[in-house]
Design brief:
The protein has about 190 residues and is of the alpha/beta class. The protein has one domain (about 1-190): Rossmann fold. Helix content is about 30%, strand content about 25%. Strands 2-3-4-1-5-7-6-8-9 form a 9-stranded mixed β-sheet, sandwiched between helices. α1 (about 20-35) crosses α5 (about 155-175) and α2 runs parallel beside α3 (about 110-120). It starts with a strand and ends with a strand.
């Protein structure tokens, strides 16, 4: 079984913000897999399906970002999901908009949602797809920036990133991709092993 979690903040005021890039990527993956995600009433929205020989759980934690692990870890334990078959999709300030990175394990890069998942799982052996949002231009603070919506001019690139994130997740789930990879859609390049 695979558990794919998209991280973000719940509520309409956060829907189209940069910090909800993980939620947005999970929605695209949900459509591609034809596995609808529905509120379960237990601090999460959940989609469950069986595709191409794989049981798949799509999870959107409905607690705030820095509490994401409190939803992901208990669900993974209850469902018997191995750490190596957990994939988390999340925004990343250290990558520019248009770039995304997959790694099968590793650190949190200071991302509080990822820190929560790692702490609650007790392992860094889960996969992650980081979707670049870039850093704010002065004088906007990082916290204000991540909670701001994408600009209209950024939306075509945002849509490309979301599609590429879904493609990458499908490659991990169905093709057993384990090599780290960085994709930069603004330069049309993909690099293995980063």
């Amino acid at each position: 079984m695979w558990l794919i979690a998209g991280l973000g903040n719940p509520g309409p005021e956060y829907e189209e913000t940069r910090h909800n890039f993980g939620f947005m990527a999970l929605e695209v993956l949900s459509r591609r897999l034809k596995i609808p995600i529905r509120d379960s009433g237990r601090r999460l929205s959940l989609g469950r399906g069986y595709r191409r020989g794989e049981d798949i759980l799509l999870v959107r934690p409905l607690g705030f970002m820095n509490l994401s692990g409190e939803t992901v870890a208990p669900l993974a334990r209850r469902e018997g999901v191995d750490i190596s078959r957990i994939l988390v999709m999340v925004d990343d300030l250290d990558l520019p908009l248009g770039a995304l990175r997959y790694r099968p394990g590793g650190g949190t890069a200071g991302h509080r949602g990822m820190e929560s998942v790692l702490r609650c799982l007790g392992s860094d052996g889960f996969g992650r797809i980081r979707l670049g949002i870039g850093r704010p231009e002065e004088p906007l603070s990082e916290s204000d920036f991540v909670l701001s919506p994408f600009r209209e001019s950024e939306m075509p690139l945002v849509e490309k990133v979301l599609g590429a994130a879904a493609d990458l997740a499908l490659d991990v789930i169905f093709n057993g991709k384990t090599a780290p990879v960085t994709v930069n859609l603004t330069e049309n390049q993909e690099k293995e092993g980063l």
